[in-house]
């Protein structure tokens, strides 16, 4: 008599809607009299618009208006509250604010017409005269100007500990090395889009592709001086985001502007090329000086990161916290500097800071392990840390040793010959490499509402998002299990700014934050239900406390006594035909403050490198994850598979290349910006190790959105070294770097 929804591999509750096309995305909503906007992007990287001639576009029948900085209404950008929840310190970019060009492909006009095709054509007729200015887009050339930001977007660097210089000098083995991670752009299937429906009363209904509807709502209110009550933002489905929807993007601003001015519905969809015109993963160069005793015991870690930002915002990530999280060492010094360039501000992309920082760290440590002649896995065991030394706090739980053990066993790591170039198959060199990783298991305050109708149907809601990760499904599972209802009787609602307050859907914190709120609100429903069940005539539950009963299979049982129960339907009959309604705002557990909550991973990789062609094939990946309690093994596995695939892409394919003559990313399309396809992806084995954690949040689940990617690329780099004897220090490992 237990429904056991949590922990059960469950198909997506929204799966049918998704594969049948019933699920609607931001650009798929329509309204009567809808107009279409097309964005005109700047051709130069920096300077001014001397003149912008829209007459040819406006002369076309069916073109309604061309919005530029010249005709931007005065009420826009009136107050300073347009900062969104994910804005780094600085001054956010304001579309159509003035004639200033701050980055290549900056939106400079929106052409609005009766049809999309007409808007796109008319956009080509807009004539712009620029006054060009000098620009800096060359990262390497500007590294000497790198600075320490006054305020960090994320954690400020931990204080130095011990005597890193002295310890490095004395170390028996040492490595000084530099690793570079390129810029990358988010490429979700769904392009950024906003459909804005203007109501007669001036109220707006906005369908936005975003990871936080309330963030978009707040941004619109700030930018346009509107009241919250007049702006309703919806985002029921999101076709992938990876961080690109953490900040409202410029199509939202432009669509709202046009809808308000034209007093009709307007839709703006960015092109794939325009997807490369806002935030990206910042190029990050990391210098390491690491030293160990002859037996591989770490003595000193110095880690200096240099990362890209824009000229108008100081975007920074947690690149350098990882040595203190992942390795026991008394002597550490860490620094993070920014290189500001004439580009759009970088933006969180799956495991921001961890993807770059753990890549560099894990490759540098592999070098050190080789230098010391210690097996890479043994090296990590030897330097295993029981606490987060940055904060001097123990982990809330850490089953990384189980990850090593189970991952290594499944992979067959013990059969590895440590010698580089020791394994060969025809013209392929075979390499085995490993790395480990971590990600914060954060929890934010979140609210949820539950309504249990007299007919026994439960609806739970919160203004969070499902960016493809399975939020609808896991929240439904948590609610169903807590109230003891079958999955079919539970509906979860999200992606609506009028729902209870939720944090942005990011940081791998949605299950811990919103899931815990769902659990908490459903526990309140249980309390009510038990009271009602006790009012049933001759109730077998009379006098029982909540601890003494079990909610399962649509019934409330005396625990351990299947024969003595009251059905939830019977309990609801006692409620006078009314629904049970509860709402909570759930805070992180206080006990967390004394602990460092992190998820962990260990990844083992086999590569085959064609000796003649230099091509790298990632033939086998075993990744073991310690992510606390797994709510849904099926969606959880998919999350990790996605992370591994991205790790393969990061290691071997992905990079946005800056053309410093034009100040523009050259490969701004999917034919030149390469991501893995099926032919690049082979065996992937995902292991979830047992991990119990009562501190991390009310569910014991750590979140899996980001831990899947962090240790993959370095394991591949390390495997390529083992295969070839070549240490590629700049991603991606394209064939030219191996020949
Ligand atoms: Mo994630 S980069 O926090 O959407």
From TrEMBL:
<dbReference type="Pfam" id="PF02738">
    <property type="entry name" value="MoCoBD_1"/>
</dbReference>
<dbReference type="GO" id="GO:0005506">
    <property type="term" value="F:iron ion binding"/>
</dbReference>
<dbReference type="InterPro" id="IPR036856">
    <property type="entry name" value="Ald_Oxase/Xan_DH_a/b_sf"/>
</dbReference>
<dbReference type="Pfam" id="PF01315">
    <property type="entry name" value="Ald_Xan_dh_C"/>
</dbReference>
<dbReference type="InterPro" id="IPR046867">
    <property type="entry name" value="AldOxase/xan_DH_MoCoBD2"/>
</dbReference>
<feature type="domain" description="Aldehyde oxidase/xanthine dehydrogenase a/b hammerhead">
    <location>
        <begin position="20"/>
        <end position="134"/>
    </location>
</feature>
<dbReference type="InterPro" id="IPR037165">
    <property type="entry name" value="AldOxase/xan_DH_Mopterin-bd_sf"/>
</dbReference>
<dbReference type="Pfam" id="PF20256">
    <property type="entry name" value="MoCoBD_2"/>
</dbReference>
<dbReference type="InterPro" id="IPR008274">
    <property type="entry name" value="AldOxase/xan_DH_MoCoBD1"/>
</dbReference>
<dbReference type="InterPro" id="IPR000674">
    <property type="entry name" value="Ald_Oxase/Xan_DH_a/b"/>
</dbReference>
<dbReference type="GO" id="GO:0016491">
    <property type="term" value="F:oxidoreductase activity"/>
</dbReference>
<dbReference type="InterPro" id="IPR016208">
    <property type="entry name" value="Ald_Oxase/xanthine_DH-like"/>
</dbReference>
<protein>
    <submittedName>
        <fullName>Aldehyde oxidase</fullName>
    </submittedName>
</protein>
């Amino acid at each position: 008599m237990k429904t056991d929804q949590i922990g059960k591999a469950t198909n997506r509750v929204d799966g049918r809607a998704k594969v049948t096309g019933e699920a609607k995305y931001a650009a798929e909503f329509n309204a009567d009299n809808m107009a279409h906007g097309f964005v005109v992007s700047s051709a130069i990287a920096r300077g001014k618009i001397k003149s912008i001639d829209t007459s040819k576009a406006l002369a076309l029948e069916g073109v309604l208006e061309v919005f530029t900085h010249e005709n931007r209404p005065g009420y826009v950008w009136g107050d300073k509250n347009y900062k969104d929840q994910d804005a780094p310190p600085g001054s956010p970019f304001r579309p159509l604010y003035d004639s200033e060009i701050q980055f290549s492909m900056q939106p400079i006009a929106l052409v609005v017409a009766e049809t999309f095709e007409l808007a796109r054509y008319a956009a080509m007729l807009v004539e712009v005269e620029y006054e060009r200015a000098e620009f800096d887009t060359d990262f390497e050339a500007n590294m000497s100007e790198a600075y320490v930001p006054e305020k960090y977007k994320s954690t400020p660097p931990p204080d130095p500990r011990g005597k890193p210089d002295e310890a490095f000098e004395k170390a028996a083995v040492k490595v000084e090395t530099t690793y570079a991670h390129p810029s990358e752009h988010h490429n979700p299937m769904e392009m950024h889009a906003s459909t804005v429906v203007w109501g007669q009363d001036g109220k707006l209904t906005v369908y936005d592709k975003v990871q936080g509807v309330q963030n978009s709502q707040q941004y619109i209110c700030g930018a346009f001086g509107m009241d919250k009550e007049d702006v309703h933002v919806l985002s029921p489905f999101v076709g992938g985001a990876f961080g690109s929807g953490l900040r409202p993007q410029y199509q939202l601003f432009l669509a709202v502007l046009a809808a308000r001015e034209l007093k009709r519905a307007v839709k703006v969809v960015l092109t794939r090329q325009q997807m490369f015109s806002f935030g990206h993963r910042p190029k990050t160069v990391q210098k390491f000086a690491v030293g160990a005793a002859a037996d591989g015991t770490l003595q000193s870690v110095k880690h200096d990161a240099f990362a890209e930002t824009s000229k108008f915002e100081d975007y920074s990530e947690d690149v350098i916290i990882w040595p203190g999280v992942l390795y026991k060492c008394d002597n550490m010094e860490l620094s993070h500097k920014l290189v500001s360039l004439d580009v759009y501000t970088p933006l969180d992309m799956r495991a921001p800071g961890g993807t770059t920082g753990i890549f560099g760290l894990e490759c540098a440590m592999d070098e050190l392990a080789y230098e010391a002649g210690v097996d890479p896995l043994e090296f990590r065991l030897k330097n295993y840390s029981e606490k987060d030394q940055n904060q001097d706090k123990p982990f809330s739980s850490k089953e990384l040793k189980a990850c090593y053990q189970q991952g290594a066993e499944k992979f067959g790591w013990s059969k590895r010959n440590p010698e580089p170039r020791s394994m060969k198959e025809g013209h392929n060199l075979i390499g085995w490499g490993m790395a480990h990783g971590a990600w914060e298991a954060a929890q934010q305050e979140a609210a949820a509402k539950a309504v249990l109708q007299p007919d026994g149907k439960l609806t739970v809601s919160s203004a969070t998002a499902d960016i493809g990760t399975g939020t609808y499904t896991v929240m439904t599972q948590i609610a169903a299990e807590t109230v003891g209802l079958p999955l079919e009787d539970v509906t979860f609602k999200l992606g609506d700014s009028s729902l209870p307050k939720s944090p942005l859907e990011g940081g791998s914190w949605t299950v811990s934050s919103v899931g815990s709120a769902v659990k908490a609100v459903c526990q309140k429903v249980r309390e009510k239900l038990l009271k009602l069940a006790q009012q049933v005539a001759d109730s077998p539950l009379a006098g029982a406390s909540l601890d003494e009963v079990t909610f399962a299979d649509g019934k409330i049982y005396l625990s351990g006594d299947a024969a003595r129960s009251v059905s939830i339907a019977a309990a609801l009959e006692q409620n006078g035909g009314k629904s049970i309604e509860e709402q909570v705002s759930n805070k992180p557990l206080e006990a967390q403050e004394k602990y460092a909550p992190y998820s962990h991973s260990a990844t083992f990789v086999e590569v085959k490198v064609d000796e003649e062609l230099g091509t790298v094939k990632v033939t086998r990946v075993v990744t073991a994850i310690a992510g606390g309690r797994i709510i849904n093994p099926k969606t959880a596995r998919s999350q990790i598979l996605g992370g591994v695939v991205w790790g393969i892409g990061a290691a071997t394919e992905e990079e946005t290349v800056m053309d410093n003559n034009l100040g523009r990313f050259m490969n701004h399309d999917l034919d030149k910006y390469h991501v893995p396809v099926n032919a690049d992806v082979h065996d992937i084995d995902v292991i979830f190790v047992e991990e119990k954690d009562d501190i991390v949040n009310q569910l014991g689940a750590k979140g899996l959105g980001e831990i899947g990617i962090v240790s993959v690329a370095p394991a591949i780099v390390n495997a390529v070294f083992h295969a070839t004897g070549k240490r590629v220090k700049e991603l991606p490992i394209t064939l030219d770097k191996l020949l």
